[in-house]
């Protein structure tokens, strides 16, 4: 024994950012990068102004507009009248504090969690903060992405640090091989179903195992995105050659010899053999079916070939009641197969599944076919860069020819605080990450699934098993 402690990846990164331990038990950690979106930054800037403080490190800060922006092709800040004020405020605040601002008029605009990796702002071993829960997404590159609230945004703006309770390291290992047609979204939905939406509470989740190693970087971003739906604070994957290849040449990534030096350091970013996790869970992937949610939390999930569960089958009284309430809201009956459920809307996009590989997976299903009559189907690229790359590959034509709307980048119908709203009573199958009551519009009903499953449902007008489609 050498006496050198075996550390988890989480401990390595966290400790490297520790400024000091505070008297209240929290850790003060340095933030390498801070990204802003319009809905959570306005009040933070206002408070900063009132306190007479400035932004400590504007050069480490980047702002974009994503939540409330219109996604109508060719939109500007005024296209969604409801967003006008907030968008103008974001722009003005960024200008005043000399913060880079990628607004709707900038080719680099997009959902904050899509552009942070895409621009190379998020890098292995860095701490990236954002006033948005799904900041964990960037964990797919081996970064610690920390989602914070408005008062913490203010704290980061003023000090470039965060005071946080130290999360507990846990590990989720996806073992075996991912069946054909299935993707990271199916894996993470399965994990949430197995562990529950509180399964990761207070923790930092490292995703590992053969199936994660096999995932492309964009799939790892999807996996880490939904750490929040596991109840975790953070989720990440140890960086590897795929990560380095992904980052090379990106706008904010190191260049030339600096990249090689960074890569040499990044290679040490993994959990040491024998490192202790508070919890270590294995999920078998070999026989996984495409996953679709049936209820109003992401843990209400099943294989597409399953039936809607009977609330009475749950041992726990709280769970029984919640499932019964969810079925009432979703207007679904126990025992009904998920496959075959008619849908009204198909939404492809969001920070979970709005990247190029997601659109490619959907387009592969859609090519040469038509959206079912009466179904509204929309594709909303996660960023304008994704939109341009997809267009260079001709994906927009595949979608448009089939009857999909091909929109500009933004959060869109994931959260429906712009004009993209699902009507009351409508049933929407979506590639996003949240299926709460009213999430996509008052009275709307959401089924979460992978891009291929959503695309196939748009064509069939009902939920289908993509494995059968492939054989047909
Ligand atoms: C608007 C924002 C605060 C919110 C979040 O942080 O999650 C949004 O992104 C969401 O997904 O509901
Ligand atoms: S796409 Fe959805 S989950 Fe992601 S940041 Fe936007 S609103 Fe939140």
Automatic annotation (TrEMBL):
<keyword id="KW-0479">Metal-binding</keyword>
<keyword id="KW-0028">Amino-acid biosynthesis</keyword>
<dbReference type="InterPro" id="IPR050067">
    <property type="entry name" value="IPM_dehydratase_rel_enz"/>
</dbReference>
<keyword id="KW-0432">Leucine biosynthesis</keyword>
<feature type="domain" description="Aconitase/3-isopropylmalate dehydratase large subunit alpha/beta/alpha">
    <location>
        <begin position="11"/>
        <end position="461"/>
    </location>
</feature>
<dbReference type="GO" id="GO:0009098">
    <property type="term" value="P:L-leucine biosynthetic process"/>
</dbReference>
<dbReference type="InterPro" id="IPR018136">
    <property type="entry name" value="Aconitase_4Fe-4S_BS"/>
</dbReference>
<keyword id="KW-0100">Branched-chain amino acid biosynthesis</keyword>
<dbReference type="GO" id="GO:0003861">
    <property type="term" value="F:3-isopropylmalate dehydratase activity"/>
</dbReference>
<dbReference type="GO" id="GO:0046872">
    <property type="term" value="F:metal ion binding"/>
</dbReference>
<keyword id="KW-0004">4Fe-4S</keyword>
<comment type="pathway">
    <text>Amino-acid biosynthesis; L-leucine biosynthesis; L-leucine from 3-methyl-2-oxobutanoate: step 2/4.</text>
</comment>
<comment type="subunit">
    <text>Heterodimer of LeuC and LeuD.</text>
</comment>
<keyword id="KW-0408">Iron</keyword>
<dbReference type="InterPro" id="IPR036008">
    <property type="entry name" value="Aconitase_4Fe-4S_dom"/>
</dbReference>
<comment type="function">
    <text>Catalyzes the isomerization between 2-isopropylmalate and 3-isopropylmalate, via the formation of 2-isopropylmaleate.</text>
</comment>
<dbReference type="InterPro" id="IPR015931">
    <property type="entry name" value="Acnase/IPM_dHydase_lsu_aba_1/3"/>
</dbReference>
<keyword id="KW-0411">Iron-sulfur</keyword>
<protein>
    <recommendedName>
        <fullName>3-isopropylmalate dehydratase</fullName>
        <ecNumber>4.2.1.33</ecNumber>
    </recommendedName>
</protein>
<dbReference type="InterPro" id="IPR001030">
    <property type="entry name" value="Acoase/IPM_deHydtase_lsu_aba"/>
</dbReference>
<dbReference type="GO" id="GO:0051539">
    <property type="term" value="F:4 iron, 4 sulfur cluster binding"/>
</dbReference>
<dbReference type="Pfam" id="PF00330">
    <property type="entry name" value="Aconitase"/>
</dbReference>
<keyword id="KW-0456">Lyase</keyword>
<dbReference type="InterPro" id="IPR004430">
    <property type="entry name" value="3-IsopropMal_deHydase_lsu"/>
</dbReference>
